[in-house]
User: Fold proline dehydrogenase from Nocardioides euryhalodurans.
Amino acid sequence: MLRQPLLMLSRSRHVQELVSTMPVSSGIVHSYVPGETTDAAVTASEELVAGGMWVTLDFLGEDTLDVEQAEATVAAYVELLGELAHRGLARRAEVSVKLSAVGQALPDSVAGGGHKIALENARTICRAARNAGTTVTLDMEDHTTTDSTLAILRELRKDFPETGAVLQAALHRTEADCRALAHEGSRVRLCKGAYLEPEEVAFQDRIDVDRSYVRCLKVLLAGQGYPMIATHDPRMIEIAGSLASRYGRERGTYEFQMLYGIRPLEQQRLAESGETMRVYLPYGTEWYGYLMRRLAERPANLSFFVKSLVSK
Ligand code: FDA
Assistant:
């Protein structure tokens, strides 16, 4: 019941300004976001890798309408990738990028438009990742960005075929998108979808999203690509394991992914059982939208968030 209002709030600049002076170190934020700086993020990655995990790092930020801010985000990724290489982590740690953080939402009137700016900025990050010896996955945002994001993915893959994509089972179109992307060399992260979407484009009931998730899993695991199974849902994890066996998938030809701080014991269990387990690790000061989406998935945590606010 709280999911919808929380997701609406996640887009509110006004509330964001009110609460985002809260430091990452405060209780609930820290449980989902380990730090603000490159150093904190790399140190947290080091700990995860030492515990047998793989990592994908997200420099927090989204929906920027400022060219300079988009460029600062690119610079942050370039610095991060240099540091991952320097500290010997690039084999096990890649980066996840939200195209709206690197300019996708900018209007057409600005320097060729948001799509073009985001493409060029993403290209710079892909180049830095290649130089560091790792990869980029493009996060997927709300449905209004899906076509642009997949078009940018196609462009990037001409030079950087290792670039990964995210597809959201909540959208009606996604099973078809999975078919289009289930080809050799294609890295696809399948998630349920974290955004508030209208019924014209998305399933509204959880059960329908889950059914779609399973159909998409079948397409990806039966295909030739590299599926990245991003879910904390015990049923989806079990079904993915059975489907992987059914389609003769060896371990290492697909991976599981979960968000930092969510079900860490299950992350550990999967890693210890020999699965590739990658943790999505967000860092930075722009945690507001990310945190609100996490609260929408788990409204039980709302009271902890309110307590953090009151005691700040
Ligand atoms: P579901 O929401 O049904 O949760 C299953 C169980 O997981 C819950 O019962 C609970 O135990 C636990 N859980 C889930 N969320 C929790 C939380 N916030 N706090 C504590 N426990 C929680 N989305 C998107 O739209 N675009 C993207 O690019 C990405 N990227 C992405 C990367 C990775 C690695 C992951 C794991 C997820 C994403 N997502 C995403 C988010 C995704 O779409 C989805 O919103 C969340 O993963 C929650 O869905 P589950 O599949 O976990 O199932």
In short: The pocket of dihydroflavine-adenine dinucleotide is lined by residues 139-140, 166, 168, 189, 191-195, 230-233, 257-259, 262-263, 280, 294, 297-298 (CB under 6 Å). Strands lie at 54-59, 93-97, 136-138, 164-168, 187-191, 226-230, 255-259, 277-283. The chain has a mean pLDDT of 92. The chain has one domain: 34-286.
